[in-house]
Design a protein that fits this description.
Layout (H helix, E strand, L loop, with lengths): L15 E2 L6 E2 L17 E2 L15 E10 L3 E8 L5 E5 L11 H8 L6
Antiparallel strand pairs: 1-2, 3-4, 4-5, 5-6
């Protein structure tokens, strides 16, 4: 991987319309990068490594589970509906303007991931 394909927050924390539910999604206000919809938790398969935008797949990244990290908090586990790639994204529960839907995260915590 070249240095130009490595993660940079600049330019990747932008407004988007969710391809899954149509929600209008604002950038995170804490300086981090928003990479999933706070309303439905879906994402798009755009990255190979977080923020690199190196994937050509573009499939729907479906939230299939969550993990709890002692320092990072809730981690949403996504699986691409097109190619099966699995990725992990930190939940944005602390965003003051558009936090992730905590109810969906709780629901995901009770699901089995192999379904």
């Amino acid at each position: 991987m070249t240095a130009s394909r490595r993660f940079t927050a600049q330019g990747t924390n932008t407004h988007f319309v969710c391809a899954s539910c149509g929600a209008d999604v604002a950038p995170l206000s804490n300086g981090s990068v928003r990479n999933h919809c706070p309303a439905c938790l879906h994402s798009l398969h755009l990255d190979v490594f977080p923020g690199d935008r190196a994937s050509d797949c573009g499939g729907d990244m479906v939230p299939v589970g969550v993990d709890r990290h002692p320092k990072k908090g809730w981690i949403i586990v996504h699986r691409c509906a097109k190619c099966g790639f699995e990725g992990r994204n930190k939940a944005a529960l602390d965003d003051p303007h558009q936090p992730d839907d905590y109810g969906l995260i709780v629901e995901l915590s009770s699901r089995r991931r192999d379904v």
